[in-house]
UniProtKB/TrEMBL annotation:
Signal peptide from the UniProt entry: 1-25
Residue span(s) of domain Immunoglobulin: 20-130
GO biological process: adaptive immune response; B cell receptor signaling pathway; negative regulation of regulatory T cell differentiation; regulation of T cell proliferation; T cell receptor signaling pathway
Keywords (A to Z) from UniProt: Adaptive immunity, Cell membrane, Disulfide bond, Glycoprotein, Immunity, Immunoglobulin domain, Membrane, Phosphoprotein, Signal, Transmembrane, Transmembrane helix
Pfam families: V-set
TM stretches of this protein: 140-164
GO cellular component, one term: external side of plasma membrane
Protein name as catalogued: Cytotoxic T-lymphocyte protein 4
Membrane topology term: Single-pass type I membrane protein
Compartment(s) where it occurs, according to its Swiss-Prot or TrEMBL record: Cell membrane
Lineage, opening ranks: Eukaryota, Metazoa, Chordata, Craniata, Vertebrata
Length: 199
């Protein structure tokens, strides 16, 4: 009876407890998912796998093994996975996410070395990916802006030409166009009126 109790307690200790957030929302195509774990023991090598659950099926998104040196690394897939391990958790930063990547993501942690091997999964995180709002078509705005600027430019040229034409006509009305030499004021003062004599 004492042997079965030791066996049961040994099984409980060899189970990794994996915890992860329930919901995670994302808008820019980047999401950080933290997978916490406990009871890893004297593990030197751990494998983390991110699975996407669809019904009863699991699809591997990214997986990698790391040592307890906690160095960051990246896994290049369709969804890029940047892994930042630390003492009690692993942060998986996913980039390249699109709206169709929305779903339930499960962290799977495995103790690889030294033996004995054991594994556990988290409860899953519902990841909601929202596509960014589409940018308005700037080509239409550029055409409208160009047409408006061209219209104002053409309007200013026509208005300037009309005003110049009116100014030139006004000057013509004031001048006769015949040049008459006028004596200067000094000469007018020196003019002696002439005397008409009658015979």
């Amino acid at each position: 009876d004492d042997f079965s109790w030791k066996k049961l307690s040994f099984c409980i200790v060899l189970t990794i407890l994996v915890a992860q957030p329930m919901v995670l929302a994302n808008r820019q195509g980047v999401a950080s998912l933290v997978c916490k774990y406990k009871h890893i023991g004297n593990a030197k090598e751990i494998r983390v796998t991110l699975l996407k659950q669809t019904g009863d099926r699991f699809t591997e998104i990214c997986a990698s093994t790391y040592t307890m040196e906690f160095k960051m690394f990246s896994v290049e897939e369709v969804i890029q996975c940047h892994v930042s391990p630390s003492r009690n958790n692993v942060t998986l930063t996913l980039t390249g996410l699109q709206a169709n990547d929305t779903g339930l993501y499960v962290c799977k942690m495995e103790r690889m070395y030294p033996p004995p091997y054991f594994m556990n999964k988290g409860n899953g995180t519902h990841l909601y990916v929202i596509d960014p709002e589409p940018c308005p078509d700037t080509a239409i705005y550029l055409w409208v802006l160009g047409a408006t600027a061209s219209g104002f430019f053409l309007y200013s040229i026509i208005t300037s030409a009309i005003l110049m034409g009116k100014a030139i006509k006004r000057r013509r009305c004031l001048t006769t166009g015949v040049y008459v030499k006028m004596p200067s004021e000094k000469l007018e003062k020196k003019v002696i009126p002439f005397h008409i004599t009658v015979n």
